[in-house]
Specification:
single chain, 211 residues, alpha+beta, five-stranded mixed β-sheet, five-stranded antiparallel β-sheet, 5 helices, 10 strands
């Protein structure tokens, strides 16, 4: 029975290797972080748009400029009418009060779109240098703020840029001729599965030899 548990543990450990090391930059690689931009924020002059995330930032007022945040954070955008924002004086709130207000107050419109800080890692010789996600505000109705990812602009070390359109809000389009995604797929998914299969084969062979 102990051997069976050990086998299950080893297989599970191998399968979860990709998750454990997903945020670790391997030798010969570089990290690429996301930048974001609200492209039509000027169409909503009566609102203040706030970025809030875990573990940071607690509160950042957004403009039409590009913005980014801590690579391990997950953030959302909130909207408050300027008249209400000026009355509330959020600058006097502590971190807990800001979070409680943004999450629960009826004055706040909330977006369900979650933004990630890090795009991923690529090899050092990969010319990719940046990934800018363009966001569009579709509507503000009551407590619902609808924001959509429209395009991603990839920047390269030679100054060139390429644009890709989002076909799904949950799937980031890959840069053209991206070898990095294939490399990561092989390293983080295929290799552990192959290792698990080999381990099972060795154990099964030993059992058959004993019989």
């Amino acid at each position: 029975m102990t051997k069976k548990y050990l086998i299950v543990f080893l297989i599970a450990a191998l399968l979860f290797i990709p998750t454990a090391f997903a945020d670790v930059i391997q030798p010969g690689e570089k990290a690429i972080n996301f930048d974001y931009q609200l492209t039509n924020i000027k169409d909503y002059p009566d609102y203040v748009f706030i970025l809030h995330g875990m573990p940071s930032p607690t509160m950042e007022i957004l403009s039409s400029s590009e913005f980014s945040f801590y690579k391990f954070s997950t953030c959302s955008i909130y909207a408050i009418k300027k008249t209400d924002f000026n009355k509330i004086n959020m600058s006097k709130m502590n971190d807990t009060e800001v979070e409680t207000f943004l999450m629960n107050d009826s004055l706040v419109a909330r977006s369900n779109l979650e933004l990630e800080g890090q795009y991923g890692s690529v090899t050092i010789d990969n010319p990719l240098e940046g990934a800018l996600v363009l966001l569009r505000i579709n509507s503000i109705q009551g407590n619902n703020l609808e924001i959509q990812k429209t395009k991603i602009v990839y920047g390269y070390s030679d100054g060139k840029k390429t644009e890709k359109t989002f076909q799904s809000q949950n799937q980031t389009p890959e840069p053209p001729n991206s070898q990095n995604s294939l490399t990561n797929y092989i390293y983080y998914l295929v290799v552990p599965i192959i290792a698990a299969i080999i381990l099972i084969y060795i154990i099964a062979k030993r059992k058959s030899n004993k019989q």
